[in-house]
Amino acid sequence: MPVKIRLQRHGKKGKPFFWIVAADARSKRDGKYLEKIGTYNPNTNPATIDLNIDSAVQWLHNGAQPTDTAKAILSYKGALLKHHLDGGVRKGALTQEQADAKLATWLDAKSGKVDAKKDGLSKAQADAKAKAFKAEQVANEKRIAAIADALKAEELVEAAGEEEVEVEAVAELTEEVAVEEVVEAAEEVAAEEVIEAVAEVTEEAPAAEENNEEKEA
Hints:
By secondary structure, the chain is of the alpha+beta class. It has 4 helices and 5 strands. α1 (53-61) crosses α3 and α3 packs antiparallel against α4 (96-216).
């Protein structure tokens, strides 16, 4: 029976989560499987892989063929290297201790690379957050400055309106004072004319009386 090591899809829509399984090559992709040997989660950065290396290597020893994606995962976790080293042990090219030491050295180096990548990602995320925070601060400062300018403009408009009202009030007051002065001047002129008229009548009255007295005599 031909066996394939492949991925079986699970998870939600838009967020796939995969099982790494050994299954009959003739079965459907998400159908029955012979053994679940790990999981693969591509939704994290870097992707999260949990693999039973011994089970994967045993299936490789039994002739199972991995798909391209599964092969990449097995290589990433060291399963293919262990399979290769076990072949060297069987042929007598190296001892089991040497094979184990080579695998341990490779796994340590791989772990260091993964940790360095995680650190790089963490730093990149921190830098991105810092840039976003700085950009937000600049935007807030611009927004505050715009609000201050708007308030200042409103104050200038209000001040201009108040000055216009004051000017109109002064103009109205000036007009009222001018009218009052004109009225007072007219009243004074009228009063003087009345006084003069009375004076003229008073002066003419004695003269008229004298004329009457002369006629009677």
